[in-house]
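Morning. Coffee machine broken again, so started the prediction first thing and wrote up yesterday's gels while waiting. Chain of 718 residues, entered below exactly as on the submission form.
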Amino acid sequence: MTATLDVPEQNPDLVLDQSADDYWNHYQLTFALYSVSDRAIPSAFDGLKPGQRRLLYQMHDSRLLPGNKPQKSSKICSAVTGNLHPHGGASMYGAAALMAAEFQRVKVIDGQGAFPRIQGDIPAADRYTEMRLSAPGAALTAELDDHAVPMVSTFDGEWVEPTMLPAQWPVLLCNGAMGIAEGWATKVPAHNPREVMAACRALLARPNTTDDTLMKLIPGPDWGCGATVVGTAGLREYITTGRGQLTVRGTVSVDGKNCVITELPPGVASNTVQERIRALVESGEMSGVADMSDLTDRRNGLRIVVTAKRGHSAEQIRDQLLALTPLESTFAASLVALDEDRVPRWWNVRELIGAFLHLRDSVVLHRSEYRLEKVTARRHLVAGLMKIHLDIDAAVAVIRNSDTVDDARQGLQKRFEIDEEQANYVLALQLRRLTKLDVIELQAEADKLDAEFAELTELVTNPDARRKVIDKELVETAKLFKGPEFDRRTVLDAEATPVTAGSDEDGPRERKVNTAWRLDDRGVFSDSHGDLLTSGLGWAVWTDGRVKFTNGNGLPFKIRDIPVAPDITGLLRSGVLSEGYHLALVTRRGKVLRIDPAAVNPQGAAGNGVAGVKLGGDGEPPDEVIAALPLSCQNGEAILSISEKGWKVTEVADIPVKGRGGAGVGFHPFVAGEHSLLSAQVSATGYVRGKRAVRAEKRAKASNKGSGTDVLPAESPA
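Came back before lunch.
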């Protein structure tokens, strides 16, 4: 007997009438939006990411306040992930450990146990450490019980959580932030909290404060790790635009034959520096180093000692350390944060302070409205009780002569002209509230409620009154930062310049990208052929649809021929784009994708490119990129495309600008029997056939029959 397999009948209701590409694109977009708004990018208002906000809220709800007993980190993180944040406990503990780290500019969490002291440290396991809110951390959650911020349901609907914390100091500017999401990245440097609070008060009083005044109040970053900002390049641009390149140097002192490293630039780990030094010594680029010792401990902090060989000076070794290792590096500030609609955008320092002040105004308004509601309700009850006190005997008589509670309630309402709520309050009074002493206390309470009612009404209706309250509270909050640990740590050395390595067998070398680098059409960086990279933006296109834009970051200091990417298999063409130029990618299936390089993040020398144009599916011949055309975007510019049986000239202006990763648009319709495009070229002056100019057609226009070999670029007018 042959066994048969019963195949269940397909349920048509379970079949999606949707292509696989559309399905995955939808979910990729959904994840991208989630990654941006719910994970990686902080809010411009309370300065926190959702995970950080939920952690602090859980600690507030658990009463882990300064002075109270701390709690096991594992218990706190488990509560957060179980109640509020549907992610792993390990990632939550990592965020908590960072907020409790010693190099954090303002410690939000008071950690008990082995938490990181220097950058790159790994905290002890969460079962061995304990946490509670620090005094500045408690200031971020202090007004949650006053209904100062909106609350929403959690992911499972069982709890509620705040949309943002009622922060009393600007966390984002004080502690900085780093995060990478889909299409967005943020990198905010830390600042001195005293300077930031002073700037908040200044902008609150004078919103039109000049940039010069703002830079006097906040002259530059101030990281908890210390370090030095070298020169003033990029500082003003960063403060005024939210973007800027800052050169940051660690602290390296010379002690005899030793170079002692005691501070690192932000984001640079100790083991990274040590591994780089070892690699340089092994390669012979730092042949003057005799030994390196890591003397770092929890009491004295970072201390890496590099010893020079006999015949080599420690000063020379110091210059080489700064030039060849991350001890001097570039901090690319990028102030990206979420606005009130949870949409990421660029901010500058002034706008971030304005967002924080807007939050404080909203907090004062909401808590005043909540308190006003309570005061109004209490005033109403007190007013009814005072009417009763005017004739206690009459009130007692009404109650005693009533058969039921309803009769007593109605009798009091009629006799004393009070409403039902006031009557119920009177009926619930204890007899001791009828004493003469209580009448005096009642009058005092009424006067106090009247005064508070007037004050709260003024706060709710008058923005100027709220500004006075905000300023007063900023003064009180600033007292949290009086200790010596909040003195400026980062030195702003306006006179210093980036270090250059000393002369060796190859002569002097700049630490930055060498200005002599060139890139040719074969995908080779060199100093002898190709277009100068510093005069534009490098680009490379592969036949499989990948594209790469590069400014040369990561190129070595010694000039030698190196490929534009680690893998140049299938590289079609490369070159350097001038400012304002676009790049067109032409496929064998007759489609073109026009890309603005400003919309694509440049990659370093180690980058292998990103998805450029999406190629067609199965078919013969297989689809591929056959041409990469730099476009000047001038009037009259056109593309000549040649297929198996025809040719066509297309207006560049008719080709829309698209983002990378798309399929492009059709621009060369095929005739019967054609399957592929053979070549494409571009001319800024259009094309001629013989002595007559060829009219450029729109994308949908059919091609002309012929080989197209007699169609040539037009000569530019003299």
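The first strand starts at residue 71 and ends at 72. Going to sketch it on the whiteboard this afternoon.
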